[in-house]
Amino acid sequence: MSNFVRNIFRANKHLRAAFQGPQVVAFVPAMALAAFWLLGEMAMLTIALGVPCILSLTGFFRATDADSGGVHVAEVITLNMLHPLASEVLSIARCQKKMTACLLLGFENTQALASRHGPETIIKLRDAAAERLRSVLRPGDDIYVLESDQIAILLGPVMRLDLESALQLATRVQAAAEEPAAIDRIAVYPSCSVGISLSSRLEENDAGERLLAHVEAALAEAHANGPSAIRAWSRHSRNTNADADPLESEIRAALETGEIVPWFQPQISTETGRVTGVEALARWNHPDRGILPPAAFLPSIDAAGLLPRLSEIVLQETLEAMRGWDNAGLTIATASINMTTQDLDDPRLTERLAWQLDRFNLTPHRLNIEVLEDVVANGPDDVIARNIRALAALGCGIDLDDFGTGQASISALRRFDVSRLKIDRSFITRLDTDDDQRFVVAAVIGMAERLGLDTVAEGVETVGEHALLAQLGCTHVQGFGIARPMPADRIPQWIEAHNTKLVQAPRLPRATG
């Protein structure tokens, strides 16, 4: 936006404010009287009749959104286009000695939702959420739908806006955006995180660009701590643009000093309730920021080309943990590790993995290799296909991760010797209360049984979901409702406590026949 357009926008705002209120009653007659004395009766009539018409046509007498009781919704291309608008809101707030804020809402699991329901799903969810937000916000607040599948909200100036008030508003905004939406007559349950930037945390001369940079950084931090997290920018928050390069050097050091290690999430049998395995999930024990989930550092690791090094560390630490549990007399049948396309593209992958297994005195069937469904569905090249088949021939289990979010065919499942399907968490959410979810999961489990494949449901968070999965015949479950990921040294204590509870717990019935 040019400076000329920006100045016109500002002048329009200030003139509109000047002409609204009691002063306008005296101002127009004063102009008409002056015209009469200077130019005569015709000039007086022109001013008296013409000025109000001009002001009305240009919108000076039109009520603002705050006065008319409406919430403005507009579409823009990028967050950068909001810079002059945010600057204007800040300017008005400062002139009136008031406060404002910006909220930025970002949807999660967009790739999985798009794969399941079609590429237009996220746009429909975003637009529906923007309309629902009208009922949550005050008159004078503006909603901007962004091309990046995000929604920005600029709050109209208010006398008092502290962090607690902003968090309460963000909670209401999040709840409205996460309401289920009907897409092609199927209920879709989105999740989203929210970032907050308060004008009270800006320097005196900061403009709208800084307000928006802060809210973008807050949303990134929320996504890193999600799903469905809310974060407000503070002076301790990290600026995503400024931290890109230093984070890479931090990550390189963290990989080599043991700060990034696997934590393990138990998987249990729905038939016996016993622990049947664990999944290795990377965690960064950051010296200043505490334990960070993969979302906070995996993009930087990928950008730096360090995914193979991370996989190597996770594999070695997992096998070492398995040996330690064995030596302690703990029975954990399998451990699952994720492998990326870069890992599978290594011609010597099977050879190296076999050597590592032998080094820790573990048989290949104790290790499950998780491969994303897209890797199988997209017709991988000869090296990847050969490696997956070779790992299966070695004796490793092949888990198809995020099943249902891609386009893998039954022939692909057979061609790559897949032994287990991991049902994506987007199918598990509200499984016990949503008939559509139940129908889809039942179909996946039924297909797996006919193909002789085991199933594991990830993201199980409630007793109801767990019980229904057992009834439907899913063989294994994992999720926060069973156990959160934990360090290797806490696994024995957790299993001991879990086995003690099994003695008194009722058996969950499974489907038969």
From TrEMBL:
Family annotation (CDD domains): EAL (cd01948)
InterPro entries the UniProt entry points to: Cyclic-di-GMP_PDE-like, EAL_dom, EAL_sf, GGDEF_dom, Nucleotide_cyclase, Rev_trsase/Diguanyl_cyclase
Membrane-spanning intervals of the chain: none
Occurrences of domain GGDEF (ranges): 98-235
SMART domains associated with the record: EAL, GGDEF
Molecular-function annotations in GO: cyclic-guanylate-specific phosphodiesterase activity
Residues in EAL domain copies: 244-499
Entries under PANTHER family matching the protein: CYCLIC DI-GMP PHOSPHODIESTERASE PDEF, SIGNALING PROTEIN YKOW
Protein name per Swiss-Prot or TrEMBL: Diguanylate cyclase/phosphodiesterase
Organism field: Primorskyibacter flagellatus
